[in-house]
Design goal:
Distance between the termini of chain A: 57 Å
Helix content of chain B: 10-25%
CATH class of the largest domain in chain B: Mainly Beta
Shape of chain A: globular
Number of strands of chain A: 8
Helix content of chain A: 25-40%
Distance between the termini of chain B: 87 Å
Largest sheet of chain B: 8 strands, antiparallel
Oligomer: heterodimer
Order of helices and strands of chain A: HEEHEHEEEEEHH
Shape of chain B: elongated
Strand content of chain A: 15-25%
Structural class of chain A: alpha/beta
CATH architecture of the largest domain in chain B: Beta Barrel
Radius of gyration of chain A: 21 Å
CATH architecture of the largest domain in chain A: 3-Layer(aba) Sandwich
Number of domains of chain B: 2
Number of helices of chain B: 3
Strand order of the largest sheet of chain A: 1-2-4-6-5
Chain lengths: 205, 186
């Protein structure tokens, strides 16, 4: 075998390794957003048919109300992101690629909502998807300012779950809740509190 | 000679590509996901009032499983199926030697899911668990689940103490059992 042949084989092998690695990488990060309704240039997607299953104000079929409330949550966070524009093109450079908002039959009535954060396979400081799920077991409301399961304030819970989506963890301070990220629903969910703003400043300097 | 080299080259490329693909799948990085829920804080007695079963038993098996969720847009999740060897059927008339339930979290098939609201168990541990069944639930795919997630699981020690796996509060096991029965109305 000539040296030229050996060189060719070596280069081919390296290319093959690169291809071999790229296949599972692409598979691991592929999204399934085809059946979702994407709001233009917001970087956020909603499963509108799923959100229609939420009981809002005593009846179902109010996905637009839920979306309006969650959009307000996004505005709450966006205002504090220190110049990181989480809308439009810049969204792709943010920690999260997108938020995915839907409802779910969680069954366990002690759960109001939850959020799943999927991290980048090769870079755990980046999130590839944030799934926010509202429990259909409860009754929801726009602007109720309430944590009651008969009229849960959508935006309050949205604020909290989106806080997870940008990387904030639960704040556990049972004696005196002072964070939107307190572990159970509380009037502090209404807006970012000082400790939340500090956390965002650290996370998004 | 030239054709032979090209064939050898192509074969080498295919073999190396396949080998690297397999190696990546076997030894490559694991995707990590975190789950955090807004829970209603409840005491064990309050949890008891909502549970179908209250069981004292020994953790016999824990099997993590990666689940391809059916709803469009849902990424895969990892759950752990926990099997308990029943020592005391506190209420619910379960009647079997074992009972299983599903909790979110675990690691399987290159996905690690860390669920803040889920309890951690160890094999051989004696526990008091409050379980519900709902074949239509989506989150646990129709499997039994813990009421209140970690709030619905208490570890029992040899001194008769029951420590809840959510906040770490310790109670007298016999007292919790009797209060649970009252709460459930049995």
């Amino acid at each position: 075998m000539t040296s030229k042949t050996r060189t060719t084989i070596a280069i081919s092998a390296l290319l093959a390794v690169a291809i071999g690695l790229s296949i599972p990488t692409a598979m691991a990060t592929a999204g399934t957003v085809e059946s979702y309704w994407w709001k233009a240039n917001t970087g956020m997607c909603y499963n509108a048919s799923s959100l229609n299953n939420m009981n809002v104000g005593g009846s179902t079929g109010h996905s637009s109300t839920v979306i309006t409330e969650v959009e307000q949550s996004r505005g709450v966070l966006n205002a504090e992101m220190n110049g990181v524009d989480i809308t439009g093109d810049a969204w792709q450079n943010c920690y999260a690629n997108h938020f995915d908002v839907a409802s779910e039959n969680v069954a366990d009535s002690t759960v109001l909502a939850y959020e799943l954060s999927y991290l980048d396979l090769f870079d755990s400081t980046k999130m590839t998807q944030s799934e926010i799920r509202f429990n259909t077991d409860h009754s929801w409301s726009a602007n109720s300012s309430s944590c009651s399961t008969s009229s849960l304030d959508i935006q309050w819970i949205g604020n909290h779950e989106m806080g997870h989506g940008i990387g904030l963890k639960h704040h556990t301070h049972p004696a005196s809740p002072d964070s939107m990220m307190y572990e159970s629903c509380h009037p502090k969910y209404a807006a970012l509190q000082t400790v939340d703003k500090t956390a965002i400043d650290i996370h998004y300097p | 000679m030239k054709n032979k080299n090209i064939t050898l080259l192509a074969l080498s490329a295919v073999v190396v590509a396949l080998a690297s693909f397999v190696a990546f799948e076997e030894f490559g990085p694991t995707t990590v996901a975190y789950s955090a829920a807004v829970m209603i804080p409840k005491t064990p007695v309050q949890i008891a009032g909502e549970a179908d079963y209250a069981i004292i038993g020994i953790v016999k098996d824990m099997t993590p499983i990666r689940v391809d969720m059916p709803n469009p847009g849902d990424e895969d999740r990892v759950y752990t199926d926990v099997t308990i060897h029943v020592l005391d059927d506190v209420y619910g008339n379960h009647g079997e030697k074992t009972i299983s339930f599903r909790i979110m979290g675990g690691e399987a098939s290159k996905l690690k899911m860390v669920a803040e609201e889920s309890p951690e168990f160890r094999l051989g541990e004696t526990v008091l668990v409050y379980i519900n069944q709902d074949p239509d639930n989506y989150t646990f795919q129709g499997h039994n689940y813990l009421v209140g997630q970690a709030q619905g699981a208490l570890s029992i020690d040899e001194h008769g103490n029951a420590t809840d796996k959510y906040r770490g509060n310790t109670f007298n096991k016999d007292l919790i059992v009797s209060q649970s029965k009252i709460s459930k109305g049995v």
